[in-house]
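B., you asked whether I could sanity-check this one before it goes into the benchmark set. Here's the sequence:
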Amino acid sequence: MSEVSGVAEQTVRWGILATGQMAAAFTADLVDLPDAEVVAVASRAEEPARAFAERFGIPRAYGDWESLAHDPDVDVVYVASPHAAHRAAAGLCLEAGRNVLCEKPFTLNLRQARELVALAREHDRFLMEAMWMYCNPLVRRLKALVEDGAIGEVRTVQADFGLAGPFPPSHRLRDPHLGGGALLDLGVYPVAFAQLLLGEPSDVTARAVLSAEGVDLQTGALLSWDGGALAQLHCSITGSTATCASVTGSQGRIDVPSGFFHPERFVLRRHGREPEEFTADPADGPRTSLRHEALEVMRALRTGETESPLVPLEGTLAVMRTLDAVRERIGVRYPGEAGGPEAGQDREPALV
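And here's what the prediction gave me:
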């Protein structure tokens, strides 16, 4: 029994907050883990919560978030609401004494992210962003190779993520009240990938094409570091991109083909050597599996840790700081953010 988490050694009891696509994907992987038990689900309406509970065999369904947050049988809550509601949902759970795994992007802006981190530390609870890319075994192998100097000093990182669309103005990706746009939904991956390898940039430059609603349809960003490294990043909701990544160093390069944030393989090319291909272990499950982040949460809870070394809170804050900087450069403001991303006030979105 952990003094920090109150989690039993063998079984971790999960609550699921929200009932959308991400919640379903995570729960489907979670119920296959022998040491995880999904005990409750909550929505802002009782009907979708009941339907979700029946689908996955969950014993309790709540038509409000508060009941889940105060359920004493829940060890950790997975927050899968749209990101405009992350601050409210995760904050409610933390204040009620629950540990939290919160979907990415962590929040709308850095100010909200700092508030959640402060709440977790105040209540001595575990908090982690659900950046599944950081928990992926093959991505961890790539990071280790870079850190071990396999390609020398990193010079450039390139990464992109785009969806074809078109998305109508009524879609959540176009709705500023829901934190719409390419950057927060998709661009968080290229930014997080670059910062996984290089840390927080010293300078940010960005350009974007904005929709009539004021969200970014596509954004290009150039990040730079004092040591001379650059990252060229792109995201779009107007065209399906290759979703590839490449890391170039002074002594070689690593190429990650389509789906860089959950890769099946990558190729290490070192000067004077034959290319080396690294592939995912079939024992780790399908590339779309979210089990690795769930396993990391449960490992941390059992050891009494309040944050994960794979997805540290300072790293999450650093990515949010970069996303804020990009939005500042391209002129995207969400309702209540007239003074800039950090100055925005929370708006309670009408979400299920």
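One thing to flag: DSSP finds ten helices and 14 strands in the chain. Otherwise nothing jumped out at me.
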